[in-house]
Amino acid sequence: MQEMNRQNIVPINIEDEMQASYIDYSMSVIVMRALPDVRDGLKPVHRRIIYSMHNEGLTHAKQHRKCARVVGDVLGKYHPHGDSAVYDALVRMAQEWNLRYPLIDGQGNFGSVDGDSPAAFRYTECRLSAIGESLLQDLGKDTADFAANFDGSFDEPTVLPAAYPNLLVNGSAGIAVGMATNIPPHNLRETCVALKVLIENPDATIPELMRALPGPDFPTGGYIYGRAGIREAYETGRGKLTLRARVMVEQTKSGKEAIIVTEIPYQVNKAHLITETAGLVRDKKVQGISDIRDESDQNGMRIVIELRKGENPQVLINQLYKMTQLQVTFGVILLALENRRPRYLSLKRILQCYLEHRREVVVRRTKFDLDKARRRVHIVQGLLVAVENIDAVIKVIRGSADANAARQQLKSRFELTDEQTQAILDMPLRRLTGLEIDKLEAEHKELVALIEELASILADPKKVIAIIVEELDAVVEKFGDERVTEIIDSEGELTIEDLIAEERMVITVSHQGYIKRTPTALYRRQRRGGKGSSGMKPKEEDWVEHLFVGTTHNYILFFTTTGKAYWLKVYELPQGGRASRGRPIVNLLTLEPGERIRAMIPVDKFSEDRFLIMGTRKGQIVKNGLNLYSNPRKVGIKAINIADDDELISVRLTSGQQEVLIATRDGMAVHFKESDVRPMGRFVGGVRGISLRGDDEVIGMITLEPASTVLTVCENGYGKRTRADEYRLTKRGGLGVINIRTTERNGKVIAVLDVIDSDELIMISNQGVAIRSRVGEMRIISRATQGVRLINLGEGDRLTSVAPVGETEDFGETDEESDEELDEGSEEESAPDEPGE
Prior knowledge:
Elements: H1 2-8, H2 14-34, H3 44-55, E1 65-66, H4 67-77, H5 83-92, E2 104-107, E3 125-128, H6 130-133, E4 146-148, E5 155-157, H7 166-170, E6 172-175, E7 180-183, H8 188-200, H9 206-212, E8 223-225, H10 228-236, E9 238-244, E10 246-251, E11 257-263, H11 270-282, E12 289-294, E13 303-307, H12 313-323, E14 327-333, E15 335-338, E16 341-344, H13 347-388, H14 390-399, H15 403-414, H16 418-426, H17 434-459, H18 461-479, E17 486-488, E18 504-510, E19 514-519, E20 525-526, E21 533-534, E22 544-551, E23 555-560, E24 564-569, E25 583-584, E26 597-603, E27 611-616, E28 620-625, E29 637-638, E30 648-654, E31 659-664, E32 668-673, E33 687-688, E34 698-704, E35 709-714, E36 718-723, E37 737-738, E38 749-755, E39 760-765, E40 769-774, E41 788-789, E42 799-805
């Protein structure tokens, strides 16, 4: 006995056995559980639930029945798995936020969009929805193949006739072994129109199909942001969609603004979304929100996000898109079973597979109806023969010993078939009335016409297609609706700028290289001559050396003393109050040893018709196109070639047709047309802008506007405004004219600015005292004068930086005007122009 057992043992490599078994298991999961069929869009469990409810008569016109009854019937007859697998599938087919067109009409607690679980199946009830029934339309007419169930006791359909393309209309999701599917739902009307486009033009391209079917249509509405992902998915079977919630801004009764969310992205849990948003507010990752509440009811979804006063709603909306599930990515995977094999399918192939399926359904149904009509007309013909010879038929029946004898005599005498003979024997006597005879003749006529029509359908493929189109139109007429998900064109990826409100900032750089940005509103406005307010508290022997005003969305071009250019966005700079020091600029820019920031230019876009003019301490100038700086580099680029004993002093952004004024520390200035300097490339030495005498050096360069006045500021807090036309226009390269008298009282010139009455000034001293004053309060005086006091400075203090602020809002109370007039005999004293050419 043991020897016989040994002979039956077959040695098998365990690796080979595991591989073969796992492949069998994988294919079973893929084909029998996880992936939908491309023809009816259903997985086996869904198909079995719908078929079982159909057999039990749970149609949309009947009463609801307990879900427990359906689950038990499906488990016992078709699906030998856990009851939760069946009930979960049943519940999903009834949830209107998961299926675009629910296949089951549920009654009771079937869960919610907040992620609430459905009630147990002993409490809930269900029946097929009307559109769910249409998947089974004509199932009894041999339109689908049947296979034995798991124990061979029942037959079940391998596919449903599906009167509409359910795979696209309701989508599908599933995870198999080594593969997954994630097909989004679509609008029924649009999908059927796309099918008709493909029918009319079998060579239609994806873009042509997308004119009819522009993209998915999710039951929760919202937006699809961008079309590139849709087209990629339709062409390749894989793609990514960006889904956004539908939001709007409303004014509350308290005067605040609120963000109202009325639709959320597909498969996003509303309760989790609210909790997530509240957590971001609590952790101060999102600021500006004062309250979040859910006001959803039977009329629809409504999430209210109340904002603090003065907040920018669009900025907060963009922040919520970026940080919460108000914006999600939906990965499209068009994977389905085609001929029982998993395949990635394009939109066109899915439509083609469905059309092939419907063509087969219509042909098989037509053959079924034709065969039925032919059988019936055959019987009717026999009945008509009997009616025409009724006396002889009665005589034969009465004279026969039994039914078999009567059957044989009728068959031989009237040349009838067995079916006709049996029908005659089964015919009740009432069929012998005149009315019934007329009905038989009319039925025969109708059957002959029907047979002719059905035969013509089978003989002409165009008629088959016409029937498909007609039935699609009927489905659309009955169940079609408007699109609920709006597709909007993408304006590019959501950038960090979208998350930051655009506001004006004062950018300061200290002598030792500390940089920060501060909202302009934090600087108090005062009248000329005020004492100012405490600004940055610098380290010992440090002071504010450069000051500029820009917006958070601007690029800042940093130009250094060595002639290099660097890029930063204003929002990338550290923000601080007036008293904060900021951060070392070496932590933000890759500066070389000894390199310091000399000029900062805010730029919104790098246009070809805009230029940069650069001036050096030794009076050299270079002009080049702004577009030469359109490609930011972390390590910076060379902008101008500067001699070893020289350094960059000023950079101005121009239109190409402006006028330039260069001012020196000793109070000289030269005024010339920008057109005198031709555009050059980067990293050139340039040409002479002004000639210098002795140890004089350039302290600033400005471009003049028609309405501008020239503001000159000296280190001891004195300065003046002068009309630009008082500086006679000369050629570049000259000595220029007297700009301001640099007396002991005034000190040397530290800055020259072009200003208008509506501008404001921010002035900062080396001890950190800051003042903000209106330019319009400084009256215009002549060119070669000593000027007036602009700021009261303490002993040993001196001005280091001045910049205009182009705003006129109030920021606190103003101080009384404290003009200090010029020394007697020196006010508005003119000096003769000195030769400069």
